[in-house]
UniProtKB/TrEMBL annotation, chains A, B:
Keyword terms, alphabetized: DNA-binding
Organism: Streptomyces malaysiensis subsp. samsunensis
Name of this protein: TetR family transcriptional regulator
Residues annotated as domain HTH tetR-type: 17-77
MF (Gene Ontology): DNA-binding transcription factor activity; transcription cis-regulatory region binding
DNA-binding segment(s): 40-59
Matching Pfam families: TetR_C_20, TetR_N
Claim: DNA-binding is one of the keywords in the record: yes
Record carries keyword Signal: no
DNA sequence: CGCTAGCCTAGAACGAGTTCCAGTGACTCG
DNA sequence: CGAGTCACTGGAACTCGTTCTAGGCTAGCG
């Protein structure tokens, strides 16, 4: 059965890939039920048929695990969004539309969203690489939505970063019940006006 | 010694007020040293000369404690900032200047900032009232910096909310080492352009 | 003065994240 | 085939947030 090589840079064998998937799946399932607190490492280990020590070998902490779960979910979402690109014309509107779609997707699994976002913002330096990956994925989603012809300008990238900030923070306030969906929509639309503001050539 | 009355709405006696202060002080001191993890409830209790159970009577969780600590620090900062209002002319520049000042103040105690911000974003629904207070304080600081003559429009309030989102999230990325101070400055300045965009009458 | 009601103290106890350890099993190399 | 290596297993152990218990102190009141 398939030689299990491991050339330095963390190449997983099939078995290991399968284990990893089982773990991520169990994590997402538990998170969907009861959010951050419901993702208990012992239970994740049990549900994915893996010893606790092994779970920790794959994901060195609960936060790592949940951030990886978020990566996974974001990838799905990115593909889904790609398949149905925004219908709006203006970049700002396109981005706002896309983010609100993503938002509604998260709404369907609020506990899961809670777990992932809490992990993301609670992550310390030891999780930076993984959090960065999530950030890059989010950036990619937004840039896709903008539908640019050329590569973005520095100004536009700043605007995108600010949009990401707003997106995360708005998500948190919604998840902790301090803002309504309507509120979030307004905030997203407000921040997206920055895109028009930083459009490169003709519009001013 | 001073009658200890308690009229329904959590009025503290002098002794109790003193205890509360000692606790907050110990919390801030420990946080300054080693951030979120260094604030250990047993140690806070010991350092403030109070039993563990009492600590929990005053602050029902570590997150409550740290959010209260943040309230405290923000109040200080608000007063400090009030004393030296921003020198810039334009509202957007004034807000950016003020936020960068606040940012540099936090830079001086990065561990403390870390602890407070992590607590803030990790807070769940049970801490909503306290988190809301922090949010209102932040809003007040920004509105002060804008130096408006009249009360802000709904549009301006949206812009302020987005600025707050950006502020918190940028702070997190800086604290977790994923963005430089220069980066944060750019983001703050970028988002502050929303203020010009939402100015009420003459400018457009 | 003695009673009652609260708040406080000291410390045990419990739960979940994390670490550690001894043993086992599978695959590789000789 | 035999030996070594390394990932995996099962479970104990440790830490720290949180809760609980028993008892003591103060303040007001009859």
């Amino acid at each position: 059965m398939t030689a299990e090589v491991k050339p330095a840079a963390m190449q997983l064998t099939e078995r290991q890939e399968a284990r990893r998937r089982r773990i991520l799946h169990a994590s997402a399932r538990l998170a969907s039920r009861g959010g951050f607190d419901a993702v208990q490492m012992r239970e994740v280990a049990e549900n994915s048929g893996v010893a606790l020590g092994t779970l920790y070998r794959y994901f060195p902490s609960k936060v790592h695990l949940l951030v990886a779960t978020m990566q996974d979910q974001l990838q799905h979402m990115h593909e889904t969004l790609r398949k149905r690109p925004p219908t709006e014309e203006e970049p700002a509107a396109r981005v706002a539309q896309t983010l609100m779609r993503a938002f509604r997707a998260l709404q369907r699994e609020p506990h899961l969203a809670d777990a992932m976002v809490r992990a993301l913002t609670f992550a310390d330096r030891s999780v930076s690489p993984e959090v960065d990956t999530v950030s890059r994925l989010t950036t990619a989603i937004i840039l896709d939505a903008m539908g640019l012809d050329d590569s973005p300008t520095a100004e536009q990238l700043s605007a995108v970063r600010v949009i990401e900030h707003t997106w995360h923070s708005a998500l948190i306030t919604w998840l902790s019940g301090r803002a309504s969906i309507a509120q979030v929509k307004i905030d997203i639309e407000t921040v997206c006006r920055l895109i028009d503001l930083t459009a490169p050539a003709p519009a001013g």
